[in-house]
Structures are given as structure tokens and as C-alpha cells.
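name: query_chain
kind: protein
chains: 1
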Amino acid sequence: MADFSDESIASLSKKLQAGEVSSREITESFLKSIEKLNPKINAFIRVEKETALKEADEADKRIADGGTEKLLGIPLGIKDLIVIKDGLTTCGSKILENFKSPYSATVIEKLREAGAVLLGKTNMDEFAMGSSNETSYFGRCKNPWNLDTVPGGSSGGSAAAVAARLCPGTLGSDTGGSIRQPAAFCGVAGLKPTYGRVSRFGLIAFASSLDQIGPFARNVEDCALILQAIAGYDSMDSTSADIPVPDYSKSLDEGVKGTVIGLPKEYFVGGVDTAIAAIVTDAAKKLENEGAKIEEVSLPHTKYAVAVYYVIAPAEASSNLSRYDGVKYGFRSDNASSLSEMYLNTRTEGFGAEVKRRIMLGTYALSSGYYDAYYLKAQKVRTLITNDFKEAFKKCDLLLTPTTPTAAFNIGEKIDDPLQMYLNDIFTISANLSGIPAISVQGGFTPSGLPVGVQLLAPHFGEPALFSAASAYEKLHGAELSAKKPAV
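structure:
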């Protein structure tokens, strides 16, 4: 059987259109890789082999009939909080262990319209609450580059699946860095789109004003192809933006000549690993050599971002997760003699420790007497953080920062220290609070061989500029980096 594991989405699409290979052959190849490697890393919670092969055969028929969609016949993985009709969607939690959705998310409908093949559901931190993929009810996922380290979270399974060549692309979700942080840890590209650019209908909510679906892929071009398929207005999502979707592929070769790129001084402070700081500084020099202008800028309220996030996100989680009470769907405790006891025991037994922690934090922040002191004040500071970006983007077109302060950390290293775990998202949270798009691309490796991510941020709906700069940077050293493979 031919091996397509090193192929990009773009190259596979060209071969499919040329008739050099079939979708079934490609799908069988990736299913074989999953069978071989997934037991080591646990990137996929479930693999839908028969469904995937059926969809591959349907894609081959569409190609034979003249179908030309870029994702037609391409196998993808889906984070397990995006619902697919009649399929299990667990959010990595015991409380939804046997939940079957009666409908599909809008992004799933769009992928099916594009002819993509859905391989199965990828692992994640429970209800997307985590930065290491260690809180999943279905077991932790491991980083393919070093099985003793975490892949990042919450979309760790989606990132690890792409890094380990189990599929050429996946969907994840990003509430405070849950696409970009695991993309950095696993050495792949990951994009958080502008809030409202991609429909959230069918995305099981963690924090509704922060959540956004986005792609993982081996490179920037493939991220652009996936975003092209899933972006657009959706009347089923009240927060969806009714703004035309540009052709993102046209941005990939525009380069950075004349682009002003800001380096926020607050992102280059103590606590950033020296290897990461050096790689980001080198990225700035490389982009400057390509014609970009580099300027220092300030985002003065950055220091409050983590605190603001961990008031707003848990508060919204407290509200969103109140529906899991054992009445309508999901897990129900058998150990109860009254309705109130059933509620209590269902949530006690069904939720993991991190989810309970955030529900309690959020419920406290919203409680009578504390709402103004915590939640309302956090929302006001959120506005200040958003205004910081608006002021910075008056001076520059993009921002360049580290994606994370460190490379992937060891499994178990931070699981018992929530504050240290939360601080790992210090460079990604602000983009969610302000709703702007951001992408992480691989910048290099630490001396110990772990991947390092470089982050670019743009104004609202500035994805084309992101793709231009990220693609330009990737082309400078992409071949060198992509030649290296994980140890798994």
C-alpha cells in the first residue's frame, strides 16, 4: 500500500484531480497509520473506518463526475466537541460518554459539501478546559515529538494527529489558545480565525464569547484551504459575521514587502525560554530581510489578560455547563434518592476535577454581591485589552510574538499546579478576548529537539494578511523543518 503520510492537502488534492490516486487509497493509507501509531499517542478517541471509506468512495465518484473542490477526497480529523449527526460527541468527558447528536455542526456540513472524508474524533481536554490534554476522560494524548511530553491543549489530539502524520489536517477549537498552543508544541500550523468568521453552530460551548473553530495542518497553505471551506455567514449562529469570504489562497504568494510588523514589548519579558525568544527574534529579522518593516509596539494591558480570562471563561462555562444535569441527555447517576441528589451526584460523578474547578470559579464570579467586583470588572478590562490592539494596529499591519513561553512540558509536570498551567496560555489569551485572528507556525526547535511556535496576529478579518506573512516566513525555512519527523 502506498504511503501518503508526508503529503500535504494541496499536493494530495492535485494528485486526486489528476487521477494519479484515489481517495480510497489515501484514506486507507491514513487509517493504516492510525492503526499503527494511535495506540502510542492516543490522538484519536474514535475512528469511523467504515464511514470514512464510504465517504472516500463517494468522493471518488464526485471527482470522476468533474468535482474540483480542494478538499474533495481529503481525510480530516475532527475535535470531539464538534457534533456530527448520529455520531458520538463526548467533549472528552464522562458526562457525554454516550451522547449521540441529532444534528451536525455547520462546519461539518460545509466539509461534507466540500467532499472531505471524516476519519473520526480527536482527543481533547475535558470540555476544552486544559492546556495539556491531560484532563480527557479517555486518557491523555502524548506529543509525537517526545512521548514523555504533552501535546498541548485543549486541542491536543488534533495537533498530535497532524504532527504524527495520522491525517493531513484537522479541526480544533480555540478559547484561550487551544489551537495555537498545541500547534506550537507539536510543530504544525494552527489558526484561530476572527470571532464570527466561522460558525459556532454545533460547537459544544465552553465560553461562548471566546470559542472559535479553526484548522490544523502541516503548513500555512493547507490551513488556508480548510478555512476557505468552513468560513462564512451562518444564520444558525447569532454571532456569525455576514462579511464576504475572500479567496485565501491568493494571499499565500503576496509576501511581506511594505508590511509593518509590530513586536509587542510585553511579550518579550522574563519567563520566555531563551531558545524561543531567539527563534522569534530571528523570525523578525527574516521577515525584515523580505521587505517588512519591524517596529516595537506596546500592549500595556497584556499583564491583566490571564486574570481577565480566568474570570470571564469560567463564568461562561458555569452557565453553559449547567445543562448537564442528567435529565435530558448524557450521563445520569444511579446513586440518588431524590431529584436534587440526582443533580448533585450526576455532576459530581460526571465532571472531572478541572471542569469542576472552573464551574465553581465561574459560579462564584457571577454570584450575588460579586458580579460587579469580578465579572463586570473583567469585561471592562477586556475592553481595554481590545483597545490596545486597535491602537497597535494603527501603527502596524501585524504583530509577531512567541506562541508560548516554553516548549512542550513533561506529562504530569503542571497538572497539580493550576496557576502554572493557566500561565502557559499567557501569549494566546489576548487574541480571544479581543476576537482577532492569530496563527502559530513552526519556527524551529529547542536544543532538546522540541518544536517552537511563532505567532502572528492581525486586525479583525485580517486572515489574508496573516496568510501572506506566515506563508512568506514558512517558505524561508519550511522545507528544512518539514523534513524532520517526530520520534513516534
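note: Residues 259 and 292 are 5 Å apart (CA to CA).
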